[in-house]
Amino acid sequence: MLANKFGRTVVRLRCCNAVPLCGVSQRHMGRYRSGWAVVCQQRTLWLQMNVAERTKQTAVHRQLSTRTSHQTTVDPDELKRFRSLASKWWDENGEFRALHSMNDLRVPFIRDNLLNVHKAHHPGKPLAGLRVLDVGCGGGLLTEPLGRLGASVLGIDPVEDSIGTAQLHLSYDPDLGERVGYRACTLEELSADAAGGETDRGDVLFDAIVASEVVEHLADLETFAICCSHVLKPGGSLFITTINKTNLSYALAIVAAEQLMRIVPRGTHDWEKFISPVDLERRLESNGFSVQSVQGMMYNPASGGWSWINSTAINYALHAVKLAEEPNSDSKMGNPENSTASHS
Ligand SMILES: C[S@@+](CC[C@H](N)C(=O)[O-])C[C@H]1O[C@@H](n2cnc3c(N)ncnc32)[C@H](O)[C@@H]1O
Questions:
Q1: 139: closest CA among 104, 175, 202, 97?
Q2: Ligand 1 atom with the shortest distance to the CA of 241
Q3: Helix, strand, coil: what percent of the chain each, to 5?
């Protein structure tokens, strides 16, 4: 654990070198500095414009939350955006092409970390016997390969049309259909079902939860962390991939990827919802998780591929484990006093 923390500290220190990692040479630094100033200026302006709007939204949100006993992870604008793209999931050259190629990193990341804990007994199906929940599965781009590794996977997403696309694609591989299933719902709905069901809780809990490129689209990260803890077995793994909250991530994930290169549709990301590995780790640890590893990732638009890098300044993958004992024996869910909105 100490070694892990030390390793991560080194990685964070190296983040300071994130700009040279992006291939900007010294010769171009002069031009880069003025370009960088524009990016920072643009982000400041954008933030100022959003302050008024967010203050209004927070007031409305507060009114709503006094009326509802449960927080929700759902941001309706996000669902609307993903609904409009629901038929595009399996187009390898379309809007989700970066997610297709991300499988080259995230599938082995999940597999290898799970195999460190659970020894494989089934050649060719190393994850056989494990129950995995893929939260925000979209069209099933990650759900299917995890099923092919032998895991029983449930993919959930609140966008029904995306679940329809995932089910249609799954139907082309009947063998896989025995291990993979989908449900149009939120994590909080699943968590409530698990808590309220008459079956033994052990039957409904998961060995692992995957939320890949999802937390940056949620309305409330605290509710997400609480619900993950509810539906995960003690000792179970949580895998998250997401985007750090840095100037560099603003420049690359929003200005370059959305506005200049159109790798993903404009408006896909809200920088305010990005989260640093340190903040995510703090949030998870306060909900009974222990973070085991954090690794930086980078997308190369020229090759369309991803690679692991030392810096976590842009994208990163995180693996956490649920500790055996929950921090509070009284459930946090359903008590708004205990639940703080993460992006207010
Ligand atoms: C960028 S996509 C990632 C899809 C999938 N995880 C992958 O990597 O291929 C984000 C997904 O999160 C889903 N999503 C948005 N809000 C959500 C919420 N509150 N709970 C669960 N999923 C959500 C969206 O519908 C969308 O499918």
A1: 97
A2: 8
A3: 50, 15, 35
Tell me which H or E stretch contains 336.
none
Q: Which pLDDT belongs to residue 202?
A: 56
Closest C-alpha residue for ligand 1 atom 21: 136
pLDDT confidence bin for 197, thresholds 50/70/90: low
The answer on pLDDT for 283 being more than 60 is yes
Q: What distance in angstroms lies between residue 137's CA and the mean position of ligand 1's atoms?
A: 6
Q: In the chain, how many domains are there?
A: 1
213 lines ligand 1 (CB under 6 A): yes
Average pLDDT of span 217-233: 96
Instruction: Decide: 169 in ligand 1 pocket, CB within 6 A.
Output: no
Pairing status of strand 289-300 against strand 315-322: antiparallel
What is the pairing mode between strands 206-212 and 131-135? parallel
Q: How far apart are CA 269 and CA 46, in angstroms?
A: 13
Output the pLDDT for position 143.
98
Whichever domain contains 314, its CATH number is: 3.40.50.150
User: Which residue range forms the structural domain that includes residue 317?
Assistant: 2-24+70-323
Model pLDDT, residue 263: 84
Q: ∠ CA 309-100-233 to the nearest 5 degrees? A: 80
* 60 occurs within a structural domain: no
In a domain, 340, yes or no: no
Polymer length of the chain? 344
For the residues of 85-129, what is the DSSP string, one character each?
TTT-TT-TTSTTHHHHHHHHHHHHHHHHHHHHHS---STT-TTTT
For residues 11-30, give the mean pLDDT: 34
By most ligand atoms within 8 Å of CB, the mutation choice from 72, 77, 157 for ligand 1 is 157
| Model confidence, pTM | 0.78
Q: Which atom of ligand 1 is nearest to the CA of 141?
A: 9
| pLDDT, average across residues 181-201 | 83
Q: What are phi and psi of 99, to 5 degrees?
A: -75, -35
Q: Is 57 domain-assigned?
A: no
